[in-house]
């Protein structure tokens, strides 16, 4: 199959270009707001819908800043040291999920201080709202024809137009990630959090499952060309960064149910 060459610009308003990738972020934030309303309205949720605009705004800022700075630190530090102004050029691409997660965690901590809630009271509420945004972001990667997979001969392999992809059949790994990290993670977390759970359990399950899904899909995704494999001659940076998530997620689940 040939990757459908989609114009990364969805539409223009005068001189302003609105790109699909940016729209995917907007869809993710809107989905989090809608899902948050649904959860906040449940009897005994401990939340009210008037708190959501601040919560989503703080998390959005944390995500965008953290994702960009995380990419700089984890994936291309040398380039940005030599050309620091490139850091602000988000439209050129370069966002890290793990950096965005750290940014969101800081936002959750700050929101908890403002509302006199513990970190995990907020984190357990936010975790089930995130996967739809992850799904949308991976669809944005697919539209852009970036972060493609490794060379393969599977029937659904796709040829990407990017010359760096070599015009050879590759795994559409963006779609694998959209399915696992987005849809599957959402269904599991939304169902799991529908019933009362001990503190840390929902956050722990999010970290554990995302880490496992990301670690697994990285076997089908082409490592970043300027990094290659960064550990043991077979582990990508995405896998290295996912290992702490798996460990922390398992620990949080153990602590949550041990206390119970």
TrEMBL record:
Pfam families: LGT. One of its GO terms (molecular function) is phosphatidylglycerol-prolipoprotein diacylglyceryl transferase activity. A 1,2-diacyl-sn-glycero-3-phospho-(1'-sn-glycerol) binds at residue 138. Its EC number is 2.5.1.145. Its main location: membrane. GO terms for cellular component: plasma membrane. GO terms for biological process: lipoprotein biosynthetic process. InterPro entries: Lgt. It is found in: Cell membrane. It is a multi-pass membrane protein. Pathway: Protein modification; lipoprotein biosynthesis (diacylglyceryl transfer). It is an enzyme of class 2 (transferase). Catalyzes the transfer of the diacylglyceryl group from phosphatidylglycerol to the sulfhydryl group of the N-terminal cysteine of a prolipoprotein, the first step in the formation of mature lipoproteins. NCBIfam families: lgt. This is Phosphatidylglycerol--prolipoprotein diacylglyceryl transferase.
